Amino acid sequence: MTSRSAWVPDNIATYIDQHSTTPDAVQQQLIERTNAMGGISRMQIGPNQGAFLEVLIGAIAPKRAVEIGTFTGYSSLAIARALGDDAQLICCDVSEEWTAVAREHWEAAGVAGKIDLRIGPALETIKALDDTPVDFAFIDADKTGYHAYYEELVPRLSDRGVIAVDNTLWSGAVAGTDDTSDDTVALRAFNAHVQADPRTVCSLTPIGDGLTLIRTV
After folding, report:
1. pLDDT of residue 4
2. Where are the strands (E) in 20-114, listed by range?
3. Helix axis angle, 96-109 relative to 25-35, nearest 10°?
4. What does the pLDDT read at residue 75?
5. What residue ranges of the chain have pLDDT lower than 50?
């Protein structure tokens, strides 16, 4: 598992991984477990992206974090590792099967107590949250749902809150017009909407498959 950037040559991707903090034993076990699932494993973020999330969480020091799209749990594990003991990560996913793998590795890493996994449609979960502000959110789920997740999260952000959104470059497909698949069209529209939103400032970074960072102004 590397940075998976379509525009980064293999030797550079390898160098990036070699010069980012390497996964510990539990993270490596999770990587191998997820890779054994076959092609669907590409849904998981790469180790260097996980390390980036840990640095970001350490800087923000959120009390309440939200993850939309947990899969087998690598991103949530990275986030939870950097959370303070008095902080909570609410994970939203629809799969009991995939998140069972996540639960196992959260326990092994000693961070399960910081994580509240909620199985069900993420939009319903977010709408049901109380008024406690969200300090950090990570969106990595169904691409056609990004706009709705964003709109529900922005008003809930604290003054220091940040939203990180994965796959916003979509292997470069968003930069052209040939690909008219639902996911690509949705991501193009999402990127344009965020960039034009006067409530927020954003930076689309070429980390992994594109990671957009957003905060309110």
Report:
1. 59
2. 64-68, 88-93
3. 160
4. 98
5. 1-3
Structure confidence at residue 2 (pLDDT)? 46
Q: Which distant-in-sequence residues (6+ apart) come within 8 Å of 53 by Cβ?
A: 45, 75, 78, 79, 82, 138, 164
Q: How many CB atoms are closer than 10 A to CB 110?
A: 11
Tokens read off for 215: 């905060």
> What is the biggest distance separating any 2 CA atoms in the chain, rounded to whole angstroms?
48
Kindly provide the residue ranges of all beta strands, DSSP E only, lying in 59-101, ordered along the sequence. 64-68, 88-93
pLDDT for 1 equals 44
According to the model, what pLDDT value does residue 8 have?
A: 84
The DSSP element (H or E) to which 58 belongs, if any, is: helix 47-60
The answer to whether 67 and 36 have CB atoms below 8 angstroms apart is no
C-alpha of 7 from chain center? 20
Q: Coil, strand or helix: which one is 200?
A: strand
CA distances from 59 to 56, 135, 153 (A): 5, 11, 20
**Residue 83 φ then ψ, to 5°:** -75, 150
CA atoms within 13 A on the CB side of 158: 15
What is the rounded CA–CA span in Å between residue 217 and residue 73?
A: 31
